[in-house]
Amino acid sequence: MQSFDALLNESSKAHGHLCPGQVVGVRMAMLGCRLIELDEPTRRDQIKKLIVYVEMDRCTADAVAHVTGVKLGRRSLKFVDYGIMAATFVNLETGKAFRVLSTEEARDLACAYAPDVAGKGDRQLEAYRRMPDSVLFRVQKVRVNLDACDLPGPTRYKAVCSRCGQVIRDRREYLVDGAPVCRPCSEDCYFSHAREVSWPNMDWSPPAPSDPEPPRQAPARCGLVSVS
Ligand SMILES: [Zn+2]
Ligand SMILES: [Zn+2]
Q1: How many angstroms separate the alpha carbon of residue 49 from the centre of ligand 1?
Q2: Which CATH code fits 4-147?
């Protein structure tokens, strides 16, 4: 694996800024990978062995994903919305899994580790770089129950929602009176008041690459027409 500084530099670039969360995330990922014995997680032969669960959608999550190379689209990055600064690293080959949690004490100890640095953000950044793993993190050995439907690779199973007809992949359906139901059709949904909408030039599509003419009509931004 690259050095901490090289990883931090790359990760901050990808994330958009250097922040204390990048320092914690890069260190979290380095430690997690070391614990499950994947020293080059982004290398071709190792990338397929790694699954990472992140429990927060903040700066740290980006750093963990960047260093490990896990991606939502590859199903190697799992986001579980716990609001906890933690990530679990799973080695699919050995079954070994470790959950690394960022401690609250580390925040309080920033002054002790970087008394020479002015400014809260800069002090945290430098302190998180200097702190030993034992202060920055707690670590749990855990067991992760991964189903075939959680793994990378082709879709294993498709159900059709008995209420809206949408296809639900990988066993994410609920069974209501024995019939498959998608989550939006159940109570367990993040949105409400869904209404189908359309507009006059909804049949727009990007022009073919060889087409010298620009698209005649851009997608309408107003004039939504409800069809409900
Ligand atoms: Zn950030
Ligand atoms: Zn449905």
Answers
A1: 28
A2: 3.30.1330.130
